[in-house]
Amino acid sequence: MRKGRPPRQSGVNCAHMKxxxxxxxxxxxxxxxxxxxxxxxxxxxxxxxxxxxxxxxPAKVYARPLELYPGRNLxxxxxxxxxxxxxxxPVQRLQAPGQFSQSGNQVSFYSRSFRFSxxxxxASQVGIQFAxxxxxxLSVAGNSAHLFRLEPVxxxxxxxxxREDRLLLRLEEVPDTMRQALLAVEDRGFYSHWGVSLxxxxxxxxxxxxxxxxxxxxxxxxQQLVKNYYLSSERSVTRKVTEALMALLLELHFSKDAILExxxxxxxxxxxxxxxxxxFGLASRFFFNRSVSELGLHQQALLVAMVIGPSLYNPLRxxxxxxxxxxxxxxxxxxxxxxxxxxxxxxxxxxxxxxRQPRVMNSYPAFLDLVRRQLGSEYRQExxxxxxxxIFTSFDPLLQRQAESSVEKxxxxxxxxxxxxxxxxxxxxxxxxxxxxxGGRSPRFAGFNRALDAVRPVGSLIKPAVYLTALADxxxxxxATPLQDEAIEVEMGGGQVWSPRNFDxxxxxxxxxxxxxxxxxxxxTVALGMELGVERVLNTLEQLGVDRDLPAYPSLFLGAGGLSxxxxxxxxxxxxxxxxxxxxxxxxxxxxxxxxPLQRYALQxxxxxxxxxxxxxxxxxxxxxxxxxxxxxxxDLPADFMVAGKTGTTNDNRDSWYAGFSGDLMAVSWVGRDDxxxxxxxxxxxxxxxxxxxxxxxxxxxLAYRVPDGVEHFWIDQGSGNLSGKDCEGARLIPFISGxxxxxxEECVDRRRGVMEWFQDLF
Length: 763
Hints:
By secondary structure, the chain is of the alpha+beta class.
């Protein structure tokens, strides 16, 4: 029996082994099935989403292109300011795009190519001669030219929810030395491996072991791209295995050049506030304010150096560490034969040359806010943040600079306690394009946008709507209609009585309609408004473009109810254009990612008031600045420069307003406090001072005095409003709608004859 036991034990062990092997075999088969399923899933993920992810690009928002032509109002300093915003750099001699030089009153620059919707402008050498504040001569490529469009400044972007931003590059746009540097430092075997490099892993392990810390990674560029595209930064075996499998699949479906191009556009390089800057294209703009094709070897090496540690080697925060790492990359480039020994020594001796110039991107949050709101009614946020659209706007960097300068200068002068806030809206006189927008005292702060969202009482800015309502009825009202400026009581219901007073607390008796407006008499205005009726005035405001609910009470006549500066700008835009209502607009056209037009925003307008009626209102608003509440504008403007406008002051001097226009610009200025506290400022002491300072530097054309058909001028006695004679005392030449002039003539003494008789009496 003892001798038979071993065979029985052997049989049991053999059966047990077979059972184990069977179990492992089944588990292996299950594992293969699961691996196959995983591979199918990963393959579908890689093959279907790689191209889509590559092209998930924010919308780019551009300013207007600066148009250069002989006779344009532009000086050399303004042109160079725009060139610097575009990242052009000063040189002694032009050699490549992105450079400019100045000699006396001549500026030359080497433009970059740019694709507009209607043409592609090639890179060219441009020469400009200035005569004072005008562009006198223009040459392109050595030949006299009539017009040249400079590429527009990109002022911002509209990003996807993950806030990633990138400027897409094609592989051929990247300098060959930069491509070779990246491969030499990050993945020397890129063009020979299949997505995973065992030799690279071994080499990295050896280097890290010798250094005693992680100095080199073993992942290929393909693996890094997979991690950035699809995976987290979690350090685990599962994630690394998944990364390797996906890298192999990516290499199976796409070419090496496509993968390298994707990597160069995807790699994260710096965090700019809430915006994550990805790719060499945008990083080049961010750090050097120039395109990748314009980078020197030392700058190319710096961007490559940052790949391994964007925060660690950020040249703005860690310049010494960044320089050391850059020089290491240059040494690798030299060792691998990418650059010569001379190039290595020159590049190694170069400073970092990171641009310290204020960044243009997203520096104008108030204007970009308005752009987003106007786009929001027509485009989905998902499309704006991912389709790579080009948004071309009316924004003018030169006007914006002057607007910000005027705001800063005037507020620093009148408000040492820094309690005041402000907003300034600037539009084109003739087409309603918003050219500049200041949303607060700190224009770079992307917070509360007062230009759009500060809804405040406007005071006397509303009065032109009251007087326009009257003038639209020439059978009853003219500029010479007598009004009574005297104490008035208005029943408000519930036993309440409203008794408005003039600002100077004085009643002025009988005054003519034009004088009541130019002097901003409250009592006369309310009396006129009561004759007209609140509903008629509200209808006029609606026709002027005011799209906001206002109180249907007599206090409306003095500016009760709230409007934002943009609301006021819409109202005064219609007044400035002589009765054409043009919706304020910021967007000129939208292009797709390939530069093809998606939508053009043509000029839209409606004639809502007769040109003759508007001419009468313009007369009164010009009188405001010549002899009324707005005459302070001529502290800054030349006496012969014609403008028109209206001051606005609210109760207890809480809000200071001015709205007006010249022959090329319309602007609205507001000054107040966010807590609605007293400012101590009238419209003339706050808003007007910003407006006039801005116009004195920005406006190039005086308001023209054009008399439309159906308007005639008559001499009127200023006291009675009756007809008078040219040489009569108190006579004033006033426009009338034909047939509406007074029928009664005033007897008067000829001023010249009276003086002569007095002189004769002396003898």
